[in-house]
Amino acid sequence: MVDIISNRVQEAYGSFRLPGMFGTGGTTQTVEAAGGFSTYAMLKRFGEPMRRERQMNKDNERKRREESLYQMKDSAPPHVMPDIRTGTSELACRFCTPNAPVQTQLDDADRRRTAIDILRVTSHAGRRTDSDATDWGVWCPHLAQAARVKKFDYPQVAGAVMAEDRVQQALDTACDEAVNEKRQELIAAGQSDESFDEDSYYNQMLKKHQKRAERVLIGMRSKLSHLALTITSWVLYKLLPCFISGVAAHPGQVDMIKRAIAAHPDAPLIFLPLHRSHLDYIMVSFILLNHDIRCPLVAGGDNLRIPVFGNILRYDGAF
């Protein structure tokens, strides 16, 4: 019964005609010659030009958007220098600036200091000479170390970026281009542009591009949180010994970074790991956090698209 019904439906569909709308005549050849359609192939051929036109419009829109983006990128951004009131010659090594009055780089005594394994030597917990039996950090050193690290304020700047002049200028440029393109389309279609409400269309495009810019910022932003760093630090204390023997940190290098930050707190500090593995940037943040140094923002890139793990990286400073 099912086969009979399906056969009848296929026969009825194959003999479908619209002579009054798409041509005259009763046979398939007459309908096709007059511009009508009677089969699925004819329906497909009838919609092919419209599909090509839509695809062409999408390609043109994408090209215009990329050209506008390239024009915005080609313009040189304003270079803002940090407010450094004192000289920075002491930040260089003693070979580059031998006459500098103060050296923040490593000296010979610092270089001879022995590296420590921070998985076994915790700066804020563990058994020390000044610790007593009532200190819970002696019995739970990893948890105490993660809880006692110095707390820093990590403000969220995604909202402030939207108010920047450069972003607003890019939005205005995109909206102006959209208005001009709409006017050209009306002229090409032979319609009068006098009835075209530019202000209304401009506001419509502005809302559209603002939402798009907000989506881009949400995809780029970092959600650096002290609580997330604390939890991640404790997890790493428990997880890292399972597959590595230790995490070596040179105390002289750590003190060098602290001296540089104390001398120039407003100067940017950039770390360039070798990136031999994905542990490199995790180790940088882990070592800095457990030595009471502000954790940096990490360029995570496509790693942020990994489900669950990407959000964890965002809360740990990746963007």
UniProtKB/TrEMBL annotation:
Basic and acidic residues bias locations: 48-68
UniProt KW Phosphoprotein keyword: no
GO terms under cellular component: mitochondrial membrane
Region (Disordered): 48-69
rRNA-binding among keywords: no
Membrane-spanning segments: none
Name under which the protein is recorded: Glycerol-3-phosphate acyltransferase 1, mitochondrial
Organism, as annotated: Culex pipiens
